[in-house]
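job 3f2a | input accepted
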Amino acid sequence: MPVAPVIRLDPRDNVVVARTAIPAGAQIPGEGVTALQDVPAGHKIAVMPIAQGEPVLKYATLIGYAGDDIAPGTWMHRHNVLVDDIQKDYRFGQDYIAAELLPANERASFMGIQRPDGRVGTRNYIGVFITVNCAATVARKIAAYFDEERLAGFPNVDGVVPFIHQQGCGMEATGEPMELLHRTLSGYIRHPNLAGAVVCSLGCERNSLDRFFGDTALDTGLMLRTIRMQDVGGTAAAIEAGKAAVREMLPEANKAARSPQSAAHLKIGLQCGGSDGFSGLSANPALGKAVDLLARHGGTAILSETPELYGIEHTLTARARDESTGRALLDRITWWLEYTDGKDVQMQGVVGPGNQDGGLANVIEKSLGGAKKGGMTGIEAVYRYAEPVTARGLVFMDTPGYDPVAATGQIAGGANLICFTTGRGSCFGSFPAPTIKLATNTPMFTRMAGDMDINCGTVIDGEMTLDAMGEAIFDRILAIASGETSKSEALGVGAEEFVPWPIGVTG
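job 3f2a | predicted structure (507 res):
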């Protein structure tokens, strides 16, 4: 049976999505309309008259208003789908659905690395950190020294990774910016995917080593070392001191061994980048199905990218476990509206050129698709950037939409895997938590097979249901959590993607 050229997402919708490019004059089977213009794949077509000012509905959700009188068959995009003041019914907690937890003996398992505190990692790295960018070269050279040949005698160690950032001095010494940097660095240093860490400093920076360790209750020992460049004699001496510290850690780190662990120990950061018109139809809702499965098995998923949920946040507050949780999410949306007021950013309505080319008319349509990553499970808690995630099930963490900054916050919060959907073809990767990339469409998956782990385009092609795709994603999550190499890991992508949120003033 031939696959229809369009996808209808809800019987109440007044637009459908082109599965493939549709030329002007083509009949739309099942909809009784003729395309009035050429419509690219992933873009929308009106299937009924829509008067100027009337809502445009996709997934039975308002994504904008008709900019003029629309005839059936019209190509619908940013030129005629306009964003205006949209009235929202927040309905705090009214759509909350608790995860139906499976009995512990029926939950899926993976081969994980249990740490002394009971947390479970999916990888086993040693990290080299900096308190300030002045120590960046030292950290890079320490990590680079431990190449494949020098680590050959330590097969259980996945690598030595530098975590470089641009902050630490010339910034606010107190308040949220420094607290955020401290949360991020300490979250990584304590991460279950790290066996040990070396922290390098210059010695006179605002983010002083002593204050950082004191404020975050970190303690030095065999597996956590510190180096002050000014104290040890400069750059070369600090590099040698770092190498010596890592050498002493390696035998202990190598003792880590994988063992069967419950999927309840998985914490997955949900990301999307380079979204297109298929993101909300294939990869995002399929990942949402996997998230619902993970929640039933006792695991945790972290939905983030606050600016990319704006416009449909009322659907999320309705899914919150209670009004307090819903209002915490709304408070973060309000903060972002003030933060971006008057700025040329997508929260003010206009999405990026790649998103537009892929079929997304505005931030509301993008947000509608992005929220699908969270499945249907209720939202259990709301966290600020890089806060430790302790709740199970689906949670929300406030982050920017910019992928490296968003994923950095999630990993700092404890995510031991990242699932990243993309329609245009993101090449993102991350350490120490590996990234699994999900393609929304088959042509892009084929073109960028070296970067993509899973092809969710089979849903668009009519070859696989969302439920089946969700199960396949969940199985791949378990496999990569058990040590199977993701595509970004194989390419070595991730060391440059550690980007703590630079929220404050640089002076």
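job 3f2a | The CA atoms of residues 13 and 136 lie 52 Å apart.
job 3f2a | closed
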